[in-house]
């Protein structure tokens, strides 16, 4: 048997295999209403000035600042501009025009007097015919007027490439009249569970059978990492059936993930199918998750995890999660330092990823190392990363923890 | 005019209005495959032991520990148990049975010898008839045997109520054969934009018209906060049309959000419709976002924001976001302290939420206070919370920032 690979070595293998997916994402154009959470594939520049036109910052009266310099004084109300008024209006010297927030400031006006600083002394709010308004205080040129282009100029960058579109980006794009935007397409990832012992939840598990947990868990992990599930299916330990399933998966996917069938046993269906197609099965010095495999089948990367649900989840988290996140334009999942609240032991020679639960900066292992402890893992919120050379850690020592 | 309300007072008003939505969420039962990201409505207990049966932790040979105490020694291979083997098998003293990881350990066996510590001295991997295996080292009772129920006992808690279901929870539920799970239903939130000046993106904005940004922005904010958009529509400043739209929204929603039509102007459509139906329009001492309104129409809360896209987004973030997150079982959005990289000025008497951009613990305002600066807001990642009484802050002073 050859020397087991280190976690770092196997991570590099998978990184090389998935590199084209991360660096050359497919793109699509989607309407703004469907673009929330998507990542821009290119810079988006504005084709318009923002604001689109000179407009009022307040409900009030558009005036010439020079005309109200001696306020308080009264001005004839010569017109009324509601928001949405589509005919340009001209203000004549010595008059005021009522204006609503956001409405176009008339030519000739250079200030807006807020309604709070005014009073109609003739006429009514709903009938401005022959009205006169008292302006209580002077305003300087430009006050409460938003100039065209004062937020953004035509040609300026609205949203840079690589931006995960949140509400504020969509608001800016929509304000500039952008209808649709070029975004990265999520990776299409197939999730294949293998094992003659598997039954679907909802069926009856006979003696010796177990429920397939890897399908639903890997599908959720893939989605959490910003990709979509192209195919999710379980398969018995039948090489011919698995070969056909793999071909179906490859046809519709950018990446195929498998669980089970790669260890040293006699019925290793994934090993039997992928090795003749150029795949490589290896042992990684880690716990859980020792057996690992990779292949490039018909140009599509295939990453194979061991079948135990804890091993599968840990393997995905360690080897694939951040690559998918990168491809999706997401930041890497957080890792941080935490302090062990209790000591722990580890098997030297293997990097161990124990399931842990944090409380502030403290962390405690929630179970032993057994990779069958799938219920215990549900109580964890981190993986405790114990380096390969470590045999024991005492309470109070620092460890790296990976967020789950 | 009455004294403006403080931000805290208006936040309390909205909190009371939305309280039933947060404390009495609707629930639904969904299949596990659709449950990722949903929040459990109740404790889920296991109806089975996990593991379901005593099984092997390794590929190897099931033996009696007593029989291999004097290893190295050779044992007759009396059988073969692949994973998924559904017929109970009995191990007779002095023999070994080949077993795969996860396969049921035969009655009579109390240890598993990993395949790496064995060698077939008679027979072949693919033909165990009359085979003999050499066991190289002894194993103690229980080694590499996973006992039934060692992960979880029937009746134990699998996943507590209020858990946002991630892959690890789904794996545990699936392993226990759970098919479907009771989860909170997301709140259904209607998003209504008002304003005769609005045109949809894709249409041509004539003079005086602007593109509706609030619809797409509020819809994205609602989804980011864990709710779903029940209806999204824009409406001109026509009280009759808005009244009909409001009724349609109420019929399909747990909450209605509106933008525009609540300030002091002459054409305030939301004000005209909600006040006669018991709504309350108020002025809040904040910038942006002074005009605010709330109503309870036919038992459905209605929260009304001012129409400017920056004001709308800030109002949602300050008053509604964390309430929706609570209802969805999400933690509150983060607020933290940051240090101003540049000084800033503020209007005393109003709590100001300036758009800021952080770099580590430093923050700088990305624009002036103008609520029309929608493109500038796209460059921000936080709101800088400047208390109402503050007139100026110097570089180096600490402020609270709200994550966008």
Automatic annotation (TrEMBL), chains A, B:
Protein name: Molybdopterin molybdenumtransferase
Family of this protein: Belongs to the MoeA family.
MoaB/Mog domain: residues covered: 190-326
Alphabetically ordered keywords of this record: Magnesium, Metal-binding, Molybdenum, Molybdenum cofactor biosynthesis, Transferase
Name of one Pfam family that matches: MoCF_biosynth
Cofactor(s) listed in the protein's UniProt record: Mg(2+)
Pathway: Cofactor biosynthesis; molybdopterin biosynthesis
The keyword Iron belongs to this UniProt entry's keyword annotation: no
Domain of life where this protein originates: Bacteria
CDD domains xrefs: MoeA
Function: Catalyzes the insertion of molybdate into adenylated molybdopterin with the concomitant release of AMP.
Reactions that this protein is recorded to catalyse: adenylyl-molybdopterin + molybdate = Mo-molybdopterin + AMP + H(+)
Alphabetized SMART domains for the sequence: MoCF_biosynth
Record EC number: 2.10.1.1
